[in-house]
Write a structure and sequence with these properties.
The protein has 120 residues and is mainly alpha-helical. It is 88% helix and 0% strand. α1 packs antiparallel against α2 and α2 runs antiparallel to α3. The protein has 4 helices and no strands. The mean pLDDT is 89.
Length: 120
């Protein structure tokens, strides 16, 4: 029974990490709108980018912790690593001010994150 409770806790940590990532990506879309309409939007969007990147790293950590001890499928680790790679590209595109790719990639990331959350 202790093993089942431990597995449930890891699953919950993974679900929380995906949910946090999804929320931070959504908040980045909100702060992008503020970027266009207010003086503090750039500061908010820049800070949000750091939080979103941290949430993507937390997702990788949660996926590894859910996979390694239990010997489950490594698929969540691959998905989380893919999100971290997309987040890295997103940050580079944002710094380079390439909105023609930055914005659609953000929409794609949000959709994929919602899909990952729905699968959990």
């Amino acid at each position: 029974m202790a093993t089942q409770a431990t597995a449930q806790r890891r699953f919950s940590f993974l679900q929380i990490a995906i949910g946090l990532q999804t929320l931070t990506i959504f908040l980045q879309a909100v702060s992008a709108g503020l970027l266009l309409t207010s003086s503090y939007g750039e500061t908010l969007h820049s800070a949000g980018a750091r939080v979103m990147y941290g949430a993507s790293m937390l997702y990788v950590l949660a996926a590894v912790l859910a996979w390694k001890p239990g010997g489950g499928s490594p698929r969540p680790v691959l998905h989380a690593s893919g999100f971290l790679a997309l987040a890295s590209v997103q940050v580079v595109l944002g710094i380079a001010h390439i909105p023609s790719v930055h914005l659609p990639l953000g929409v794609l990331m949000f959709g994929l994150s919602v899909l990952a959350l729905a699968r959990r």
